[in-house]
Write a structure and sequence with these properties.
The complex is a heterodimer. Chain A is of the alpha/beta class. Helix content of chain A is 21%, strand content 24%. Chain A is built from 3 helices and 9 strands, in the order H-E-E-E-E-H-E-E-E-E-E-H. In chain A, strands 1, 2, 3, 4, 5, 6, 7, 8 and 9 form a 9-stranded mixed beta sheet that branches. In chain A, a hairpin with a 2-residue loop joins strand 3 and strand 4. In chain A, helix 2 runs parallel beside helix 3. In chain B, 12% of the residues lie in helices and 65% in strands. In chain B, the strands form 2 sheets. Chain B has an 8-stranded antiparallel beta barrel with strand order 1-2-3-4-5-6-7-10. Chain B has a two-stranded antiparallel sheet with strand order 8-9. Classes of the chains: A alpha/beta, B mainly beta. Chains A and B meet through helix 1 and strand 1 of A and strand 3, strand 4 and strand 5 of B.
Chain lengths: 216, 217
């Protein structure tokens, strides 16, 4: 009788385990890095030749924002620059009227539950168009950006802003952006994170240019 | 897989034949009905195997059989089953200019329900081999998890399940026994993810069932 009871209980436990719809292993997916990119399909990056990048990473933690300037942050900025250079763009100073400007933001946690596209542009530490020499301008997406439900897993956002063609109504378009997620939920090395930056560029083959045509 | 099917089928029938030859001296009773609760392991086949290649032991089956006449039985089966597999980092490209690289985790959750007709060759014996055919349907959900992104299809289908197996009573007059069975299942179910560039039709699988039986006289 005890054997039968044991078998019934064992089968019952197995049944309860098996009947959950989502596999238990799927829960740890949030620890894996995710690289999401999106670009403006209406733009030809061959029309752009120079870029500049911010000197510091904007850091958002809840309602606060500040800057990251440690070695890891600098390595991340350098990797973004080298990826851009590898695609034919020429790096210039922010004061030299770059065609494209790169803003980099690291988000730890926020208390917000609903995220509007570009919500992080409003933080004081974010590099506004004014910092790039376009006071009174605002950033815009020419496409519908990705919907992100939570930033609690640690996210780096790279925005590529178009300062070559600001619109007459003072809009600066974001032509490409990348999200690298799960930096805080998993145990990821600096090397893995830098490779994720490479992957963000690799999965956008159209993000490249040609050398400036020679003047006749 | 073919080897396992063959060995299991031979074992079940040899056990039954061995008993039938000893009929005059064997005690036992013919069940008027019985209920089974089985642990189910699924081995996907064909296109379904490309979707998830892992054998999955995450499944259970509840069934009932009622004796009609001689060894002829009719009944039902209700089950639930999940198959799953991780495919590591993959990149998906979309026409709106977006791309995502992440661990891809695929799984299918299914709830089959079937009416069954079967035949027990020697229903009164301790080991009672049988053949049966299940006819019914499934509710299936096919999911692709890309980190927190969950893309899924929901499908109903028609299914056929021929099965061989055996009831093994724990004693000549015991109302408890074991069930060992093996079946092939053909369904009209399909997996169709346009954005994920994936289509699989007529999903098929093999199932191995091992469980307990409660027998009524």
């Amino acid at each position: 009788m005890k054997t039968k009871l044991f078998m019934i209980i064992a089968l019952g436990i197995l049944a309860v385990t098996a009947c959950t719809k989502y596999p238990p292993a799927s829960g740890r997916l949030t620890e894996d890095l995710v690289i999401y990119t999106k670009y403006d399909v209406g733009v030809n990056f061959y029309n752009y030749h120079t870029f500049a990048i911010v000197p510091k990473i904007t850091y958002i933690n809840g309602k606060d924002s500040s800057y990251l300037t440690d070695a890891n942050a600098i390595a991340l900025l350098n990797r973004i620059s080298s990826d851009m250079i590898g695609r034919g763009f020429v790096k210039v100073d922010s004061t030299q009227n770059p065609d494209l400007a790169i803003n980099v933001t690291a988000i730890k946690t926020t208390n917000t539950t609903v995220y509007y596209p570009g919500w992080y542009w409003g933080y004081p530490a974010y590099y506004s168009p004014g910092w790039w020499g376009y006071p009174g301008y605002n950033y815009y997406y020419p496409y519908y950006p990705t919907y992100i439900t939570s930033y609690s897993s640690g996210t780096v956002i790279i925005d590529l802003a178009d300062f070559k063609y600001p619109t007459a109504d003072k809009k600066v378009m974001i032509r490409w952006n990348a999200y690298i997620r799960a930096l805080l939920t998993g145990n990821h090395s600096q090397s893995e994170i830098l490779q994720s930056v490479d992957q963000a560029f690799n999965q956008t083959p159209s993000l490249k240019t040609t050398p400036e045509p020679l003047a006749k | 897989m073919k080897k396992i099917t063959f060995i299991l089928t031979v074992f079940v029938f040899m056990a039954g034949i061995a008993q039938s030859q000893d009929e005059k001296t064997t005690l036992g009773f013919k069940p008027s009905s019985y209920y089974t609760f089985s642990w189910n392991t699924t081995f996907t086949m064909g296109d379904f195997n490309k979707w998830v290649g892992n054998a999955s032991p995450a499944g259970f089956d509840f069934g009932g059989r009622y004796n009609l006449q001689g060894g002829l039985v009719a009944g039902f089966n209700i089950s639930w089953q999940r198959i799953s597999q991780s495919y590591g980092y993959q990149t998906a490209y979309f026409t709106d200019g977006s791309a995502i690289t992440a661990t891809n985790y695929r799984f299918t959750w299914m709830v089959p329900f079937q009416g069954v007709i079967g035949y027990h060759f020697i229903p009164a014996k301790m080991v009672s081999p049988y053949v049966s055919l299940g006819i019914g349907g499934d509710y299936m959900e096919h999911h692709v998890l890309i980190q927190e992104f969950d893309i899924y299809n929901t499908r109903w289908d028609f299914s056929l399940t021929p099965e061989v197996g055996a009831l093994i009573k724990f004693g000549y007059f015991s109302q408890w026994g074991a069930l060992v069975a093996f079946n092939y299942k053909w369904t009209t179910n399909k997996i169709d993810f346009e954005n994920y560039n994936w289509t699989s039709k007529n999903l098929q699988m093999l199932n191995l069932k091992v469980g307990l039986t409660y027998i009524l006289r």
